[in-house]
Design goal:
Blueprint: H1 2-10, E1 18-25, E2 40-49, E3 55-61, E4 67-68, E5 77-81, E6 88-92, E7 94-99, E8 102-107, E9 116-125, E10 131-133, E11 136-141, E12 146-150, E13 155-157, H2 162-171, H3 174-180, H4 183-188, H5 191-230, H6 235-250, H7 253-266, H8 273-298, H9 302-310, H10 315-345, H11 357-368, H12 372-408, H13 423-434
Length: 449
């Protein structure tokens, strides 16, 4: 009995297992090897049957949420290969069916025992969210025994955003295909690329807004200081301010950006791209704001300065409480125009690798070969510039119209701009400014004149 048991141990046991050799999905992106959810793909499963197994059916259960084309059952196929996969023995006839996420193939005749099977399932749509897709399977033998398929490795599926779903839907529309059949429209106004590039270029839009939102407030005090230096009595201050303004306004911003981004590292000064871009744009805008403030200050009648000084105010108090408040009111439209120019100038930072609107668009153009992303970038510029241009026009019209209305309403006691000979009006204005009262009073005896 002991000898018989030893002999039985030496005899190979019957192996009942259908081992998975590999399970893959065909890449369905425009580039790369990724498999995207919500996009049609083909799943290929290959497995080796045991030497004594003649398979009559195979079922593969896909993850929940997987869908199939309506004609998927007519496009699946099973191939019988040699054990070393070097030769195809033929296609096997089978009936295919779908039950929810379960794909089932029933062979017309049992497959060759110990055969190597390849099953190709077409028209598979994995869930849009993506992730690790775990597949399960089972197979049937001639005697009706059903056993599990072993070692099916999960598939990695990349999730698709809402934008990706829209572009996939657009690609299948007949009107989009007809639109893109025109070479000009396909190059400049491709609907699929417009939708696909919008969220990417939007990131650059936020970067551009952040740059100008920091640079412009920094440029305002710097420009005001430069304007005061240009009007100072000291020749040294006037010379330094004039030199800075003339050099910055007389050279291209593009050249200034290149000097800052490539010259400073050579001098041993390394600054990150974002803060350096903010600094360059702020210093450039300050030169233009200097002339805006200087023109606004010089537009204030000299009589107001003289009247304020006659009341005992020094130069600083006169500038802070009398001149600057009126200057700011007058230069707001011009400052808004400068803000628009500064926002558009952020596009030049793309030349040095700052990821703003144009840089993101340029990246997409390089990968798609279409100019459409630049059109999307232009729309993001117009979103800011058109409303602000409208605001500038209304401010200018309001300031011009307000002056005419006050002139027509020039009766006794009416509020109006301070005049150089109206010392009583200046006295009331300065008194209210020093006591933090926002009301401008004008109680001069000759107010009706």
């Amino acid at each position: 009995m002991l000898a018989a048991m030893m002999l039985l141990a030496l005899v190979p046991a019957s192996a009942l297992a259908l081992d998975t050799a590999k399970c893959t999905a065909r890449p369905n992106g425009s580039t790369g090897s990724e498999v995207y959810g919500g996009t049609e793909t083909r799943v290929t499963w290959e497995g080796q049957a045991a030497a004594d197994e003649a398979i009559t059916g195979l079922s593969i259960v896909f993850p929940r949420g997987t869908t199939f084309n309506d004609d998927t059952t007519g496009k699946a196929r099973i191939t019988l290969l040699t054990a070393d996969q070097s030769q195809r023995l033929g296609f096997l006839d089978a009936d295919y069916s779908l039950d929810g996420e379960t794909f089932t193939a029933t062979l017309d005749e049992p497959a060759q025992a110990g055969g190597y099977l390849r099953v190709e399932i077409y028209g598979v749509f994995f869930p849009v969210a993506g992730g690790e897709m775990a597949l399960n399977g089972s197979y049937a033998l001639e005697d009706g025994t059903t056993l599990p398929v072993e070692d099916i490795q999960p598939l990695t599926v990349t999730g698709v955003s809402t934008t990706g779903q829209i572009t996939s839907w657009l690609s299948d529309q007949e009107w989009v295909q007809a639109w893109n059949s025109n070479r000009f429209l396909r190059m400049f106004l491709n609907p699929v690329i417009i939708v696909d590039s919008f969220p990417i270029v939007f990131q650059g839009f936020l970067m551009a807004v952040a740059i100008v939102a920091i640079a412009f407030p920094l440029a305002i005090p710097l420009g005001l200081c430069l304007s005061l230096m240009r009007m100072a009595k000291l020749r040294v201050l006037r010379g330094l301010a004039s030199l800075y303004v003339n050099v910055v306004r007389g050279t291209p911003l593009f050249l200034q950006i290149y000097i800052a981004f490539f010259g400073l590292p050579l001098a041993g000064l390394s600054i990150d791209k974002f803060p350096l871009g903010v600094i360059v744009l702020a210093m450039n805008s300050a030169a233009y704001l200097c002339e805006i403030f200087r023109a606004g200050i010089q537009s204030i009648p000299a009589g107001q300065n003289e009247a304020a000084r006659s009341l005992g105010m020094n130069a600083a108090q006169t500038m802070i409480f009398v001149i600057i408040p009126q200057t700011v009111r007058r230069v707001i439209p011009t400052m808004t125009s400068e803000f628009i120019l500064l926002y558009k100038d952020t596009s030049m930072l793309a030349a040095v690798g700052v990821m703003e609107v144009v840089m993101y668009a340029k990246t997409i153009v390089a990968s798609t070969g279409s100019i459409t992303p630049y059109i999307v970038a232009a729309c993001f510029y117009l979103v800011i510039t058109l409303p602000l241009a409208k605001v500038v026009g209304r401010l200018e019209a309001r300031l011009a119209g307000g002056g005419r209305r006050r002139k027509r309403q020039g009766g006794a006691g009416a509020a109006r701009p301070l005049q150089g000979t109206d010392s009583a009006g200046v006295t009331a204005y300065v008194t209210d400014a020093l006591t933090s009262q926002p009301v401008i009073k004008n109680d001069a005896p000759d107010a009706g004149r």
